[in-house]
Amino acid sequence: MTPESVGRAVARDRRPDPTPSGEARRYVNQWVEPEALGTERVRAFVLILRTRGCYWADVKGCSMCGYSKDTLGRSATPEELAEQLARALARYRDEPYVKVYTSGSFLDDREVAPASRAAIVSAFSGRARRLLFETLPEFVRPELVTPLREAFAGELEVALGLESTDPTVLSRFVNKGSPPSEYLAAARRLSDLGTRSKAYLLLKPPYLTESEAVSDVVRSVREAAPHFDALSVNPVHIQNGTVVEWLYHRGRYRPPWLWSLVDVLREGSTVRAGSRLVSFPTAGGLPRGPHNCGNCDTRVLAAIEEASLSQEFSRLDDLDCACREEWRTALAYAPLGVEA
Ligand code: SF4
Question: What is the side-by-side strand order in the sheet with 97-101?
Answer without folding.
Answer: 29-37, 40-48, 97-101, 130-134, 155-163, 196-203, 230-235, 276-278
